[in-house]
TrEMBL record:
Name by which UniProt lists this protein: pH-gated potassium channel KcsA
Occurrences of domain Cyclic nucleotide-binding (ranges): 249-363
Transmembrane segments: 48-67, 79-104, 110-129, 141-164, 176-193, 205-227
Pfam families per record: cNMP_binding (PF00027), Ion_trans (PF00520)
Main function: Cyclic nucleotide-regulated potassium channel activated by cAMP.
PROSITE patterns: CNMP_BINDING_1, CNMP_BINDING_3
MF annotations from Gene Ontology: cAMP binding; intracellularly cyclic nucleotide-activated monoatomic cation channel activity; potassium channel activity; protein-containing complex binding
Organism of provenance: Bradyrhizobium nitroreducens
Length: 368
């Protein structure tokens, strides 16, 4: 009788055997970590039975999830790749760390502290963290260079303060390791005041260390900000490229031309029943429908335009006033081409100019 239940559970977990976290996994991580925290609070002794039950339930889920993933990867012939990957290691730790500690005789209250490692399972499901990892890898050279500067300043400052302050403050600066701690908390501007140089030269060194700390962390911030900006532009370019390549109007273009178009277009995500163009307004851009549908209100009729169509070009070809109201009928993704870029694009690609002009004449005749 349990075979159908086990089979259903296996199919449920196998359906999400990739690295995307399911809602159940998020709930299990949240409940498990909170239960682990409650286990350390003496005020929760009265609910110890409930806390233990929740912890064992969460652990059982993670063990089951890990075993299903192992089975799924073995069927796909990727078991060794999964086991040696960071995702496989995190899953294995989440499933085995607590049971291994309990089997080794570790006190249960201490063994369950390893449940904090379940938080690591959330990391692969956060897109921003994946982007951060790419930025850290791509900018590893500059980041390490700044780290070397940081360590150099810390070491030189600690030696200088030891030399200048050891006779005046032997308890605080009586050794290089003690001065090294002072240099770290001073360079990070988090602990200056616990130990204060009293000699004039010592204070000059401290001032230089604090100023260097601002510069070092400013460099790190600038490197990471630049890296994130570059990654964001790359992601936006790839998304726009994908949208452009799906528009039949651009299907005949080569990769270089599509790249040219992609740099000019910007993407708009709009919900249903959103007004895009109002009749009589000044026209400064045209639109391509990458996904969804829009409705054009013409005199005496309404026209629906679907994926691959474009609109708003009439205002760019001579008449600057919008000739109709246009709104979305469903969730839509539009590619927007501004007037200046429109003229540049038409100059670079005469075939596109002819197509747009021919379509504009056809619509003008229909609308008479």
């Amino acid at each position: 009788m349990f075979k159908p239940l086990i089979s259903a559970l296996a199919q449920f977990t196998a359906a999400t055997a990739g690295r995307n976290m399911t809602k159940a996994a998020y709930v299990a991580v949240t409940v498990g970590v909170l239960s682990m925290v409650l286990l350390t609070d003496n005020r929760a002794r009265g609910a110890r039975g409930w806390v233990d039950s929740l912890l064992w339930t969460c652990l059982a889920y993670f063990v089951f999830e890990w075993l299903v993933r192992l089975r799924h990867m073995r069927q796909q012939g990727r078991l060794s790749l999964y086991v040696s990957s960071s995702a496989g290691i995190v899953d294995a730790i989440g499933a085995l760390a607590v049971p291994a500690a309990l089997l080794l005789g570790v006190d249960p209250r201490t063994a369950w502290l390893l449940g904090v490692l379940w938080v690591l399972k959330v990391i692969p499901g956060i897109p921003g963290l994946r982007q951060l990892r790419r930025v850290l890898v791509l900018e590893s050279g500059p980041l390490v260079s700044v780290l070397v500067i940081f360590l150099t300043v810390v070491f030189l400052a600690s030696v200088a303060e030891y030399f200048l302050e050891r006779d005046v403050q032997p308890q605080t600066f009586g050794s290089v390791p003690a001065a090294l701690w002072w240099a770290v908390v001073t360079l990070t501007t988090t602990g200056y005041g616990d130990a204060v140089p009293v000699t004039p030269l010592g204070r000059m060194v401290a001032a230089a260390v604090m100023i260097s700390g601002l510069g070092v962390f400013g460099l790190w911030t600038g490197i990471l900000a630049t890296g994130f900006a570059a990654e964001t532009r790359r992601d936006n370019f790839l998304k726009t490229w994908e949208s452009v390549s799906k528009v039949p109007f651009f299907a005949a273009l080569g990769p270089a031309a599509i790249a040219d178009v992609t740099h000019m277009l910007r993407t708009m995500e709009l919900p249903a029943r959103t007004m895009i163009i109002r009749k009589g307004a000044q026209g400064d851009c045209m639109y391509f429908i990458a996904a969804g549908e829009v409705e054009v209100e013409l005199p005496g009729k309404k026209v629906q335009l679907g994926e691959g169509a474009f609109f708003g070009e009439m205002a760019l070809l001579g008449n600057n006033k919008r000739g109709a109201n246009v709104s979305t009928t469903k969730v839509s993704r539009l590619l927007v081409l501004d007037l200046v870029d429109f003229r540049v694009l038409m100059a670079r690609h005469p075939d596109l100019a002819e197509t747009i002009d021919a379509e504009a004449r056809r619509r003008a005749l229909e609308n008479k």
